[in-house]
Amino acid sequence: MDTHSLFLRVPRKEIAYLKFIIESYEGMAVIRTKDPYQAMVEVMIAPGWEKEVEALLEDLQKEIPMERVEGEE
To answer: What does R_g of the chain's alpha carbons equal in angstroms?
Structure first.
């Protein structure tokens, strides 16, 4: 399965919450921490879920400050 990745920087204390919310949507996306010191996470999005993930992240930005960053695909 080819996934599309987004890289985000979020407050460290919010990583677990973000992971819980994203992964509660079964099969949509998975999150892994790329750099715990810089609080950078990779959101690996399943094919066909890109729009839903974008909408969810946009909504979550009301609660969690996040910044998109460049990362390795």
So the answer is: 11
Which residues neighbour 28 within 8 Å (Cβ) at sequence distance 6 or greater? 22, 45, 46, 49, 52, 53
φ/ψ of 69, rounded to 5, equals -135, 160
Each residue's pLDDT expressed in tens, for the chain with a length of 73 residues: 688 999 999 999 999 999 999 999 999 999 999 988 899 999 999 999 999 999 999 999 999 999 999 876 5
pTM score of the predicted model: 0.88
Domains annotated for the chain, with CATH where assigned, are: 4-68 (3.30.70)
